[in-house]
Amino acid sequence: MKSYREELWFNTPHRRGYINITDQVERVLDKSGIKEGLCLVNAMHITASVYINDDESGLIQDYDDWLEKLAPHDPVSGYRHNNTGEDNGDAHLKRQIMGRQVVVAVTNGKLDFGPWEQIFYGEFDGRRKKRVLVKIIGE
Ligand code: ZN
Questions:
Q1: Rounded mean pLDDT of 116-130?
Q2: Each residue of 92-101: b (16+ CB within 10 Å) or e?
Q3: Best label site of 4, 27, 34, 128, fewest CB within 10 Å?
Q4: How far is the CA of 103 from the centre of ligand 1 (A)?
């Protein structure tokens, strides 16, 4: 069995951001040379997510509005976590609901997606460098 590991780096200009990283993950898969196996993609930070959904018009703004309703950033004083002096209590909760990672089957050297599936990086406490791990195992 072969394995391959690579980190992708992001630094979103705003506190929250949503980036389609499908092409970047496909490039990592190509480099790995693995044709049959599994591809794990996970955020390496507890205030960011990796998730799969469609890259359809309006959907990213709908996610962002929904997450802000569930866990609004303001007032910052509304989160016990922010008593530590941080201001990212909401970002921890947003990450929890959007998830840490995805696993995609690798078949014939390609990500074996369902219809319209694409991989996204969701950032909830950005404006700094953060990483995503891509780990591929197989042969
Ligand atoms: Zn925090």
A1: 98
A2: bbbbeebebe
A3: 128
A4: 26
Size of the chain, expressed as the number of residues it contains: 139
Task: Give 12 Cα–ligand 1 centroid separation in angstroms.
Answer: 17
d(CA 56, CA 50): 17
Domain 2-138: give its CATH code: 2.60.120.460
137, burial (CB in 10 Å: exposed 0-12, middle 13-18, buried 19+):
middle
Domain borders along the chain are: 2-138
- Output the CA 110–ligand 1 centroid distance in Å: 36
The per-residue pLDDT for range 5-27, each reduced to its tens digit, is 999 999 999 999 999 999 999 99
- Ligand 1 mean position to 98 CA, how many Å? 16
Cα-to-centroid distance, 85 and ligand 1 (Å): 9
Is 0.85 surpassed by the pTM of this model?
yes
